[in-house]
Amino acid sequence: MSGSIQDTFFEECEDLLEAMDEGLTAIEGGEHDQEVVNAIFRAVHSIKGGAGAFGLDELVGFAHKFETVFDELRSGKLEFDTALIQLLLRSSDHLADLVANARDGGTTDQAHHDVLIEALAKYIPEEEEDLTFEPMGLSGAFAPEPIMDDSEKTFEIRFHPLKEMYGTGNEPFFLFQALSELGELSVRLDDSELPGFDTIDAEESYLAWNLTLITKDSQDSIEAVFEFVEGLCELTISSDADPAEEADALAALNAAFGTDAEPTADAGQPDPFEQPAPAKEAEVSAPVEEKASLPKTETAKTEQRGPKPTLRVDLERVDRLINAVGELIINHSMLAQQIANLDAGDVRDVETELEGFKNLARDIQEGVMSIRAQPVKPLFQRMARIVREASSATGKTAKLVTEGEATEVDKTVIERLSDPLTHILRNAVDHGIEKPEGREEAGKDKAGEIRLSASHRSGSVCIEIRDDGAGVNRPRVKQIAIDKGLIPENAELTDSEIDNLLFLPGFSTAKEVSNLSGRGVGMDVVKNAVTGLGGRINISSTPGKGSTFTIILPLTLAVMDGMVVSVADQTMVVPITSIVETMRGSDEMINNLGADGTLLSIRGNFVPICDVAGALGLRQCHDQPPGVYLLVETETGQRSALAVDDIFDQRQVVIKSLDGVCGNIPGVAAATILGDGKIAMILDPESIIAASPSAAAFDTERRISNAIAS
Amino acid sequence: MQSQAEVKQVDHEVKHTQFSEFVSFSVAGQAFCLKITQIREIRRWSPVTILPHAPSDVLGVMNLRGAVIPIYDLSARFGLEQTEASERNVVIVVAVHGKQVGLLAESVSEIISINPEEIQDTPQVDSRNTMEYIQGIISHNESMVRIINLDAVITAPEQVLL
Amino acid sequence: MKTKVLAIDDSRTIRNLLAAALEEAGFEYHSAVDGRDGVDKYADVAPDVVITDINMPILDGFGVIEELRGTQINSKVPILVLTTESAPELKSRARAAGATGWITKPFDDQSLIFALKRVTGAAA
Question: Has the ipTM of the complex gone over 0.90?
């Protein structure tokens, strides 16, 4: 049970960290609004509260420091300045780390932790800093239970409520009831102070009680009962046992067992009419002035009451539902296929019903899919941190501006976008944004700007990362590609082709591998990650003005429209989105070029032919002329004709990931289950073209073909 | 106890429990077995979908109640000749590394009950594959049955980069 | 009749912890996610005791106490303040507003139940 509550805590932490980040971003942007500060305070405070419940001491300690600084800020004792904001940002990052560590069992960077603690402490006044949060009040009565001697004692208790007590909802009767659970209690009302009826003051408290309790419990337990009315009553407790002796004996016992019975000062004071200690009285009177300075909450009351009601559902349940809907769609195509195979007379009615079934299934599917859709906001907020860290590591100044944060994308896409985005952003800071001096010379603002935006674009999601840095250094990129043997020395490339060299495996422009974007990982990995999501990535760059990475992703990972084709006796699926046109081939359309290059002529244009079977290693040579060509266009605008044996139909397929089934297969994006229950590979046209044997000669061919065509 | 603790960990798992049930089957004419608890189901062979660029011991993928699972040719995996899969053959579906995979075998023989004491360490032979994939041998009906070390035969699936 | 508890806390974690502890101990548990929600729910739930957090959006714990004790509602129901704050001035400020008692976070189930018993006389 506590496990699941702890899960909720970490889930909630995600939300709270997000709220905190949001607030800090606003503050960084110059918005020092009281409500923003309050919101951050509450977020940190809630994390602390929850963490305390699970004994996450390190997290509690840090959250407390962090929170205290915000408390100072919201009470106006402290003002924001650049240094403080930077510290708060770093602290929020660290807090997120601590939460992650608590959840995943990582270890804290102790040095960093200590540095931040110390830095935060500088903003906290001494006395408040020491305000630790230990449970109070009930300490004596509860765990660890101090050793009690077993003998029964008789306590005489006199309880005289002050009139203040009646406003607090404390009922003498309930207190007595709680006392009676400790032992045998007798209660005598003392109404001797009650004045005559006509002089009675309704506000005054005249009644007192004399109680006798026979119990094995200690005096602490009795005092604990009266904890809430401390200072609101006159209370004296005395016992029949010799107080000094008892305290001594207990102290000795407890010392032996290492517990602390905390004998109170009252134990030795049998005077029944002793007044409450002055300190306690001060507690009652002090708040009256403070009350006047209560933060005004009325203004907030009219605000809209939080977000729309939502339901938190275990992701597994949603995925089960998505799977079930997927099966439903497969089931539909199986039915359709079997009805078509029936050879029965008139099946039009059945087909109409079946069409209705299909539409309903699609509706359900869309509904279910939308459950998985989430705004990219949290992802974007995490990216602000990446830019921050990258900037401080490189000594550059860069700011992340985000747009379209409300754009909703499939949850898995969001999760799997984190790494590629991180990499692109680090790259942008590391290689794109110039050093502050360089920027000034170029007449730019000292601080670089990276714009991260998301938008929906005709059935897909578009994520754009635009920096205002130096742009791709094309001569250098080309030289590196030549040096590494990625392109021939005499290659003539367009600007866009040079930019796209960055995505080639084994390419890295950094002269020395910086520990930031280096790590031996190149943009090819980013590209793989994006294509793994069924998406495409493109780069465009203007020298001196900056670079833009554009990532186009499918709205959902679970289904897509595909063209079912046959390749070397295998049934396969090609994503509809990448197909421009399909055509039956004829011999006169094929033009040989060189030894093994073939071009397809389409209305006077020539495009290279890519034999899919050959690219997938399923057939050695063109032993039979392919029957059908799928004209596809890559993200750089290059066109290719994918040669397949036959086309069956176009249908919606449920995507089954091959992750964990096998490694990355060049040319294959995923798999699906067809109507007959067989698995079919879903092809990735981009990588098929790349894997095509004629791909090496491709560029020259295309250039020639363009020359011929124009 | 002391001596058991020194046994390799994989052996330990097998030897620890009293009388384990094993399913024996034949691969390229040799007898192998797997602990019954590792086996999810046994199916007749039916043609699978080929995975492009797959190594020769990966036959392809098959649909197991909506899940895509890879099918390995055990014989090829052990460095023996490739199996000409036919309807007579079986696919043994096992759970390993939290995934299900299918293993093609010639045929399933029987369920045998083995006392862990009977398991002998694999004698040193001049084949690294054998040493790696076989975690022990037992004598059953006067013939040798090899206990497959599933963790070694099916390595954890490759992680997609990044 | 089970003793009805209305817990007001913006932290889902704390609400869950309270729900678990209170339901186990035989209380009828109701919750609200912020102070305004708490005051609104108060009328519907008619609890025997209110447990409220202090730091909450929209209406904080002090506000809750003031509204419940104020002339509009004029409630005599015990109100326990659930707080990580152990500062005496916060305690006394809550008391001045009319709080019955306090529970310090992190709380243990036993002391929570004990506190509830003392203010409601609940048999639970």
Answer: no
